[in-house]
Amino acid sequence: MELWHTFALAIIQGLTEFLPISSSAHLILPSQVLGWSDQGLGFDVAVHVGTLLAVVWYFRQDVMRLTGAWFSDTAHRRLTEDSRLAWAIIVATIPAGLAGIAFEHVIETQLRSALVIAIATIGFGVVLWWADIAGKREKGLPSLGWRDAVLIGLAQALALIPGTSRSGITMTAALFLGYQRDAAARFSFLLSIPLIIAAGLLKSIELAQTGTESQWADVLIGAGVSFVSALLCIHLFLRFLEKLGFLPYVIYRLLLGAVLLLVVL
User: Would you call 265 exposed, middle or buried from its count of C-beta atoms within 10 A (0-12, 13-18, 19+)?
Assistant: First the structure.
């Protein structure tokens, strides 16, 4: 890849992994609109590693606390606020994992089109706007119980539809369930960790099986740039979320979806 392509794609991955604007909608544009070549599996693995390190580093205190509480409380057969949140993350991860296994072939063969991505980008953007204005925004993360974890997990499974946005749909579900914006975003970010790990492992296995050689410069730049962009994205998103709300992202999704429709129709 050209150097600026590497930087651009890594920045796109770092930003869209966590903003509620759909990474698949953005990653389709360089190839289908600009004619860029495929970045390759090695680069995909690298940017997944970069975004994973970013979210783990940003929430390192939460990750260490929740992990320690989960092991300790599970061993002692008790449930505290931290271990319950850790269990909620595990429970909410299961539906997407099962759906991915069950519908992988359908998704890969039937849904990865620009038209599907455009419709999902617009449709789920409108739903996000509805959740933001209709949600009561009363609950914090300590209120997260099993029912809400399952419902958010089921919503996360919808993110297998390209254009939905994993972060967008989980925040949407949390808002509908009455969670505050900050709580919805933080749970979405924590919930991303096991799925990014799973996606990175799957791509690593696929890379090992294909034996494809990677350009180490692209890999290292991709990992580094995606780490920095994702870290800045998380920080700025949480900082300005209460002031801006989700309307700017909804408007952006509508415009992006319209551009994609113009391209494919």
Answer: exposed
- Separation between Cα atoms, residue 116 and residue 112, nearest integer Å: 7
pLDDT tens profile 177-210: 999 999 999 999 999 999 888 877 877 777 677 6
In angstroms, the CA 171 to CA 215 distance is 36
CB-based contact 189:66 (threshold 8 Å): no
**Distance from C-alpha of 220 to C-alpha of 103, rounded to nearest angstrom:** 32
The rounded distance, in Å, linking the Cα atoms of 65 and 68 is 5
